[in-house]
Amino acid sequence: MHMHLACRQSWEKNAASIIVGHSNALVLNNGVAAMTALLGLSHELLHCIFAEVDPADLAALALTCQDLHSYIRGNRLLHKDIYVRRYDEPSCNAEQDWEGQMQDLTKLERLLESENKQTKLDSLGFVAEQINRLLETAHCKTELSSNLPLLIEHFHDTTNVDAFLCSSTLFDRAGNENQQPADTEELRQASAKLHCLFGVPINVVPNRLTYAYQRPDLSLSPSSCTRLQMRPLPTHTYARSKVYDLRQYTLHTLWGPFTDDGTQRVDWEKVEAVMVVLGFNLNKFTERSDGRWP
């Protein structure tokens, strides 16, 4: 271990001295000499340097010249080292496609950082798949995980919450103008699952414009608007109607939150409704008892 560390430090020192030594050539020869010096390094030194590159920049680096493209593309060890520096290393023993996974997660982060609402909505399926994989491979101890803080940071953004967690059937009636159900059953199920994994029920009070849009024939007085804003959060109302609808529980659904096709697949929209109702009841219990059990 000590020998490996010493060798690595020596490689990094040599790489730094070579690059610094050619700084003047970089200015005089439009970068040709510096590029030549870089490409002249051993693969071990190149690995130490490129392992520090941000995943989003690695693809651009591979496009700078044919030699770097040949070195980076298909370099399994390099992609693995960059991956585990930013994300939790999967604990399974199966062979991993480090390059493909890193490219997928780089795309995921760009989508989560995007300000384009439609781009987010169009990518719901991909985002759900990648978030599920990040959660599956996350370290079992939260304080040691890299995946969980990354997701927590991105879902402080309400646009991500609206686009990815509020696209189930529940938000067809309970959602606001930024929360609408996805076009397909598969995507609605994926969104409901993400909402459940998020673990905190999302409650929405529709503003007057949304309410008027849903009921264009209804004219509201100022006092009615005030009372409307003081009503209980509607997400719970619609979730409760789904949970307590006895028609949802049949032999085909195994009398539980499963799809009615007999496959025993989880119906995430039902689980989502149960979560919302439980969250509402727990909040009511806390308000009435100050969180203390009799």
Description:
With 294 residues, the protein is mainly alpha-helical. It has helices at residues 2-21, 23-28, 32-39, 43-50, 55-62, 66-72, 76-86, 98-113, 117-122, 124-136, 147-154, 158-165, 171-174, 185-198, 208-214, 222-230, 234-243, 268-289. The longest helix is centred in the last third of the chain and has 22 residues, at 268-289. This is F-box domain-containing protein. Residues 35-81 form the F-box domain. It comes from Friedmanniomyces endolithicus. InterPro entries: F-box-like_dom_sf (IPR036047), F-box_dom (IPR001810).
Radius of gyration: 26 Å
Structural class computed from helices and strand pairing: mainly alpha
Unreliable runs: 18-28, 205-218, 223-232
The general outline is elongated
**Strand fraction band?**
under 5%
What is the count of helical runs? 18
Task: Encode the helix/strand succession as letters.
Answer: HHHHHHHHHHHHHHHHHH
How many individual β-strands? Answer: 0
Question: What's the main sheet like?
Answer: none
Helical fraction: 55-70%
Mean pLDDT: 82
Distance between the termini: 58 Å
